[in-house]
Amino acid sequence: MSMNRREFLKTTAAAAAASAVGISIPSEAKAAAENTQAGWQWDKAVCRFCGTGCGIMVAVKDDKIVAVKGDPECPVNRGINCIKGYFNAKIMYGADRLTQPLLRMNDKGEFDKNGKFRPVSWKRAFDEMEKQFKKYYNELGPTGVAVFGSGQYTIQEGYAAVKLVKAGWRSNNIDPNARHCMASAVVGFYQTFGIDEPAGCYDDIEITDTVFVWGANMAEMHPILWSRVSDAKLNNPDKYYVVNLSTYRNRCSNLADMEIIFRPNTDLAIMNYLAREIIKRNAVNWDFVKKHTIFATGHADTGYGMRNPNSPNVTDKERDTVAKQVAKVVTEEEAIALSPIGKWKAGDEMQMKHTKGKQPFWHWQISFEDFKKGVEPYTLDYVAKVAKGDPDESLESFKKKLVKLADLYCDPNRKALSFWTMGFNQHVRGSWINQLIYTVHLLLGKQSLPGSGAFSLTGQPSACGTAREVGTFAHRLPADMLVANPKHRKITEKMWKIPEGTLNPKVGSHYVKIMRDIEDGKIKWAWVHVNNPWHNTANANHWIKAARTMDNFIVVNEAYPGVSARIADLILPVAMIYEKWGAYGNAERRTQHWRQQVTPPGQAMTDIWTIVEFSKRFKLKEVWKAHPQAKLPSVLDKAKEMGYDPEMTLFDVLFNRPEYHKNYPWPDPIARNPQTGKMHKNTEAAGDGREILGSDGKPWKGYGFFIHKALWEEYRKFGLGHGHDLADFDTYHRVRGLRWPVVNGKETKWRFNAEYDPYARKYAKPGEKFAFYGPLLKALKKGDLKGPKTKQKYSLANKAKIFWRPFMVHPEDPKYDTKGYNFWLCTGRVLEHWHTGTMTMRVPELYRAMPEALCYMNPKDAKALGLNRFDLVVVESRRGKIKARVETRGRNKPPRGLVFVPFFDEKVLINKVTLDATCPMSKETDYKKAAVKIYKA
Question: In the annotation, is 365 catalytic?
Fold first, then answer.
């Protein structure tokens, strides 16, 4: 064959792509591909990026990943990947990969917070970690330390972290970046169904005939799912209907049959309009509603998850907004929206009386007549006036779209599949809007059916599997259990074989509160896992200053020197995805596992290794003693009764248990590659051939057992028999994932539907099709729209809740701003980059495609400000400012009055500008709405 290198590589790639989709290829191309792949070892794995959970095939040669392609056997993506997916290998091979521990030190070799990073051994790193931890732990108790977890943890990493923090340190201060991503969806699931995660699955895309996309730019954020929507639309263009609802025009608009651009926060009003229309049109599915639902509501005066305005760390500029945490002036449009719960008039002051503790979560049962009164003010005329988001669209045009939207939902001959992501979740009323999308579907009886249902899309690869199912949140335990529930603590303590009373019953600090607590001096030691908190948290100027200038110690596990690594006191170099064993859980409840493919570079070790090794540094007498600061009694006497010695370490009790060695020996046959029969490496079990000096200064030889398998098999016991059933470790290595609950070896596609879900069959009444069997929050007081009227709680077993929640104006709406902050700012991702860009900005092809974050602006706004395309502008809020270049012709097309700036670029650190207001229930930050000024730099 006479091919140059470029032709050879192109031919090989083309042959691989053709083969994946079943296209025959010329013999010359086939031969070229076979020659190229000589000596390659292929194995299945999972994409490192979004919550879609695409399967990939990874090729290894000479201990390096040499190729990645879509897995044709994976039902999620059927052999194709998005642009990021195809670069899963290159994210691991950036030129500035961190390969040894780095500690800030002075010239004497001592730790110095103002010193320069200098390389140290793993032992020196752990010695300093231990010293600093114990100093602050003994000063402040278990609440004085924290871990920033991740929806990008593997399941085993997250489980190990929860055991160390909650069972070991007796702290609940662990919270994942999934708090930024899916927390509002979680509250929506809990309060509506009593159990977390979607009822449907990706099969719904092909089964449905109507797709509603609410605040979810699927074309860029979940591109493989959007390709499936596109395929379904193109195959049935006359019947299949797509509606894109957003605050600005995006790539989903290109395919959509109808686009609705609404004003930020007014999705609440639109949902109430839909509920009103369903009732007015007699479209309520009364058989479904009477058998399977009740109506409910809660308090409206719950604040906005902001600090108290009197806090010394709130600046004078910020106080304008933060004051609304205590009280807000009711606007004319709010007076109408809130009229069902009081005689409000514009100018009245609403005191935020239900902001503390559990008060924002309080809700009670109401009658259908009360619900009907609640939605009555949300007429077409009112909602159109309130919600129209494009000043250049006529009111009549917008009204017609709202009517069409209601037509589509109410049509009894149409299925309805509603998708959403951060547009709902990152919202000062994120939990409410999640509840209201279920309200629409439940009223119609279009829920938990093939092709019909409300479907929350996950942002991160294991925000479901690790953050939620494992319970790496400050308030959770595995399998939907809660730290505040004494029964759940008792079950967990028994499972973990720790003394009763070990677990702290008080909910820990959520993600944003950890940052606030660091600034307030309440937390002085923090450890970051698979995460970039000082880049991804709103109002970042506060947190960066606190980390660098205050009395604290910050440890960051990282692969690259991102923002958080650079503010750290100690950086631990860690393995990346295919350099370790792991598992993820995706948005359709599909759990997928992979094997370690290659060796980490330099001295980099796995996150799970750092967690388990650090556990060796704590004797039981140091952590299971009494902690007066946290009002925790000693459990050492109970520990002795269980056979534990106070001199034993947390490693001995939590991670080095005799049954682990006995039941999960290494090597294990499941580690044999299906293609070649060769054993895959296992850094933790037996080392990986490198000469690594471990945390004790001795050569690392491994734990001697299969720790990933041991932790998996222990963890999955939490869900067995409780609607969270998972399969055994080996099964997942033989299949392309399974959607839980997995009962008798069979996965579940549609939950709560007795035809498909074994738990629904178990709990449904004879002859009934549905059972909403989630156990949480299934007893309520009764009342009216203004409050509960009974002390008695009534059982709602097997029923879902239809909520009424009012529209309220965002606390920083530019419409009501008097200080010149007259633009909405929205943030988010772009197709080419993942979150803070730490990995993808190091892939040359992705960097060239999108080298910097731009300020997407309407051309008319640019003209009015005297700006041209690519001019450098200042985007300024009450919290900070950044510079970015204007883009008026890009893929994102905001209406007048709104700009979009993505957050992947650390040089355009837009989170210095964003508002750290959160949903009062979910504590999820509203990154989609802040008031800003824009002017030429």
Answer: no
